[in-house]
Amino acid sequence: MILTVTPNPGLDRTYAIPVLERGAVLRAGTDRVDPGGKGVNVSRAVAAGGRPTIAVLPLGGAEGELLSRLLGGLGVEPVEVPVVGSTRVNVSLVEPDGTLTKVNAAGPELGPAESEALLATVGRYAPRADWTACCGSLPRGPAHDWYAELADRIHHTGARIAVDTSGPAFLAALRGRPDVVKPNLDELAEATGRAVGDLATLGAVMEAARELRAAGAGTVLASLGADGQLLVEEDGVHWGTAPVRTVRSDVGAGDASLAGFLVAGGRGPDALAAALAHGAAAVQLPGSAMPRPADLRPDAVTITDDPPRGRP
């Protein structure tokens, strides 16, 4: 079972539009509403693959009630931590060429008691999980080291934790020694004090990932966009790619990738291959739809344990 934690979940409303014009009245061809947030997306991807998953999340207001119902309909077991504020609603505008414009709401502020209740709830469920995936931005209220505190509590139960966040929360989380972290290039650069341009080769990405391991991360699964993913762990380094025919939407693709990685064990080239297959399938689906087994093409994934360090 995969347990997910989303400290700042939301409803994701996606509109398909012909072209984005500032100041104009836009008419959507299609629209959809999905439960959103990075951890929520991980649970949705796990459930789409027919695997059990529990999503722990703070919910409030009518928006929170709708999010919970939507999750249940998708095969995800929601565990709600009640909060005073209303769950946020995010809006995405997708153009035919895949260009995405997204507006994310701030979300409710969590008080000390609500923040502690969220930590305690995760602690109760973590021992039952193969992995606990803690994902997304922190809401207003909790300190930057909230993920580090959560990692300490989860490790105290003997369970494993994967963290996918950014900014000060990511740096602080490393002090909790998470078993897996999943940065993209921007997040990897920021966390290691580099410019994104400094990570222009696989060799440079490897070195930055090793710095994250030295700072506390167990395994680094780095997303490189169209250039695939790089896995740096105690047992070695693996790099892989997966072909994509048409990009329809990249919303949630990284979360689907993390889901594939954890379901496949969260370690080694087989898990990396699963991550790549899930990510490639997700970007070819509309909105934040998650891939089902029939959407995956694991045979198209290419993996090597000898990445070309000079490759741009």
Quick overview:
Belongs to the carbohydrate kinase PfkB family. The chain is of the alpha/beta class and 312 residues long. It has helices spanning 38-48, 61-73, 112-125, 146-156, 167-173, 185-191, 202-215, 253-263, 268-282, and strands at 2-5, 10-16, 30-36, 53-59, 77-82, 88-94, 100-103, 131-135, 161-164, 180-181, 219-223, 229-233, 236-241, 302-304.
List the helices and strands and how they pair.
Layout: E1 2-5, E2 10-16, E3 30-36, H1 38-48, E4 53-59, H2 61-73, E5 77-82, E6 88-94, E7 100-103, H3 112-125, E8 131-135, H4 146-156, E9 161-164, H5 167-173, E10 180-181, H6 185-191, H7 202-215, E11 219-223, E12 229-233, E13 236-241, H8 253-263, H9 268-282, E14 302-304
Parallel strand pairs: 1-4, 1-8, 2-6, 4-5, 8-9, 9-10, 10-11
Antiparallel strand pairs: 2-3, 6-7, 11-12, 12-13, 13-14
Helix pairs in contact: 1-8, 4-5, 6-7, 8-9
EC number: 2.7.1.-
Family: Belongs to the carbohydrate kinase PfkB family.
GO molecular function: ATP binding; phosphofructokinase activity
Give structural notes.
The protein has 312 residues and is an alpha/beta fold. The protein has a single domain, classed as Ribokinase (UDP-N-acetylmuramoyl-L-alanine:D-glutamate ligase). It is 33% helix and 23% strand. Helix 5 links the parallel strand 9 and strand 10. Helix 1 packs across helix 8. The protein is globular. The mean pLDDT is 95.
